[in-house]
Design goal:
The protein has 375 residues and is α/β, with parallel strands linked by helices. It is built from 16 helices and eleven strands. α4 packs parallel to α5, α5 runs parallel beside α6 and α14 packs parallel to α16. The longest helix is centred in the middle third of the chain and has 18 residues. The protein is globular and about 55 Å long. The chain starts with a strand and ends with a helix.
Amino acid sequence: MNIVVLGATGSIGGCSLRVIRSLGFKILGISGGKNIDLLEAEARKYLPLVVAIADENKFFELKDRLKDLPCKVLGGQSGILELASLKEADRVIIAISGAASLLPTLYAIRAGKDVCLASKEAFVLAGEILKKEALKRNTSIIPIDSEHSAIFQCIYGNEKPERIILTASGGPFLNRETLNDITPEEALAHPIWMMGRRITIDSSTLMNKAFEIIEASYLFDIDVEKIDVVIHPESIIHSMVEFSDGSVLAQMSVPDMSLPIAYSLTFPKRGKRMVSSLNLSKIGSLSFKKPDLERFPSIEFGFNAKRIGGTMPSVLNAADEVCVENFLEKKISFNKIFENVKKTLESHIPKKDPTIDEILEADAWARNYVKCLHQ
């Protein structure tokens, strides 16, 4: 099987490369954003046929660095989209962070590729459009995100679930009384998962769960009112589904992204073991609690954005993306993320049944609005 990995220099992308090699598949192409050193190192280690860098200003430098390798080098968004549509690819892993994942996902689907989706933002922005495009071309969208992979595994071969229960670790501040004085360094210290900077902050604000609510609703064609969120600090149960007879199925494993990545590549079969066995007696107990929506209003942002629909989910994502960036640069406080995202959502007039261009316009509007709030 020939695999393209978009976002190979991120945490999920890097893990994907290791999994692909372990499974014995061919890494056909890789892409990165700005980290030219890591992208070069990966190109030399895995010897893909095509390498693309999103930062077009670094294209010529990358091309020069890789001139001794028998690979084609691409640059800029056009290069990423060309790689996403590569004729020889069987599956494309989308591990690009943020709204930048939308067009590569769309292009991969339109090229008839099975998509292994790690970037939840693509479905947050345009889930309905992506599902229709995939249906039209008879391609599969296989989630990599641990929660959605869990749901996907539970419903495969079963009837449509009556309810989805998304689990959340709760992040590093689950039991912290005040959120006013949190530093970026504290927010980046996740107690369970090793992730990229933005998703780690989103986990600390529970904004990642807002996006997962929207993605799950689109991906599994289920009404948002039939989705629940429960805090599960141990991160052993990755999500659950409830069927019409009251049966609940849960997918459990040690918290390791190698498993959902491997499953997305070997589906509908299961491949070789990638993680250690689950030792429940050693873990001792599993705990669950309701999320505190007053301290972490992000979850309600997700529910409301999906209820309204249209361009509102894309505005939620864009506002959060800019707020997280500003928090990491210490321009705003942790609590300001909630405040400024809320202001942006309240100020947006959503457009129903938007086109891709209208979704991207709403994304740009939200980014500009948040930047004005931060001035």
